[in-house]
Amino acid sequence: MTARILDIPVWEVVKKIANQEISSEDYISETLERIQKIDPKINAYITVIKEASLDKALELDKQIRQGKTVGRLAGLPIAIKDSICVKNIKNTCGSRMLENFVAPYNATVADKIIREDGIIIGKTNLDEFAMGTSTEHSYFGATRNPWDSSKVPGGSSGGSAASIASFEAALALGSDTGGSIRSPASFCSVVGLKPTYGAVSRYGLVSYSNSLEQIGPIARDVRSTAILMDCINGHDIRDSTSKNTVPQRFADIFKNTVKNLKIGVPNEFFGEGVQKEVHKSIWNVIHKIEKLGFHYEKTTLPLVKYALPAYYIIAMSEASSNLARYDGLRYGFNVLKNNLNWNTTFSKNRRNGFGDEVRQRIMLGTYTLSAGYFDQYYLKAQKIRTLIKQDFDRAFKKFDILVVPSMPILPFALGEKLNDPLSLYMCDINTVPANLAGIPSISIPCGLSSGLPIGVQIMAPPFREDLLFKAGYLFEENVTIDKSVGEFTNV
Ligand code: GLN
Fold first, then answer.
1. CATH code: domain of residue 213
2. How far apart are CA 199 and CA 403, in angstroms?
3. Is the pTM for the entire model greater than 0.90?
4. From ligand 1's centre to the CA of 215, what distance in Å?
5. Of 55, 86, 207, 263, whose CB neighbour count within 10 A is largest?
6. Is the CB of 315 under 6 A from ligand 1?
7. 133 alpha carbon to ligand 1 midpoint, in Å?
8. pLDDT digit string (tens) for 245-259?
9. Is residue 26 part of a domain?
């Protein structure tokens, strides 16, 4: 890629826009041009907001020239996953069911971005209702990996991560129920943070599995990720699960480098399904950090081996309940045949409005919640969840952070796992534990193998995102990685 303003780190761009070194108009125009050129090949976006974004940039530049104080995201193009509502813009959730659904209100995170003068440039592709790990299960077609377009970008927030990796946005929002921010961040070589449960308001996020998911930021570097997190976190009276504490502030934490970090490396995340290239890359990071004087110790979280089945039971159970609202009557896909009775209309709308993966999960979730099976599945999974949380509590008495691979394997070929849901579910083995425990977790790029990205995952105790940013920055500074964009490098 030739040197352009898009190459300047976003945390610097935002300062340059505010002091008139760069105009928001130029930055937005270049981003839109890039989207036009590259997105037909990547399919990161479901909706691109062109004219309104340019109008906002012009208006903002004018305000800056007039000396007005602008917000902390002033003039930046921000992409938002298409399951997070932005008023008057379609919110499809990657589903035929909501193909023509226009959001009547802003999610709290969208409001916060607008308040900070960020420019919402589009809505990004995802696995239908965020159910997936590859962004192939979208009614709007698969998103492709910018590093190699024959490979998946990870998912379900694959559109958001791909938009960042391919310079089609400065910052993005995804949601992470069992890895949907960290998986695509890892596969696309960008930074993705799943915040502590309750740190960011979920108001306006279409629910898949509400006890597990959080909205979080995606960016090309740690400092830029922190800027967006700074703006979106905090209590919201419209989300009863958001924690009522003083919002954390991260902008200044990079001034001092971190000196002491007790690092734990839990065995369970390096099991037999983890490819040797991934092993190598993660241990390379750990050894580099060790050379800087940070000590690590191997440890064990014995109950984490039950995380994947517990996660899928809980996620599918909650999904079956959350998705019960889509009947196509008030909004959403409707067969529109007036002569049908209610039962037939309901089942026809749901059969045709939802894709196979979503229907499969609704059926399984209905089963695990049904009388007679509830105790055996859902209740048991919840008990395991508590035990896993206790495993983490114990580990964090001894360690500040835990370091593990984000994904067990390298980005795989499109279509490779489409007919094998279990092998796709297995890809989440290292990401779901943090969701079950409600702890924050970040994925940082740590290298390439045969040109394909690998991410290192750092986990910390609840509401210690500051530790993730500090450790993440340390890793980022000390691990040399290729910052180009694979096959799209020269586009
Ligand atoms: N791959 C996981 C699932 O399909 C996680 C998805 C997510 O985090 N939204 O449930």
1. 3.90.1300.10
2. 22
3. yes
4. 13
5. 86
6. yes
7. 6
8. 888 899 888 988 888
9. yes
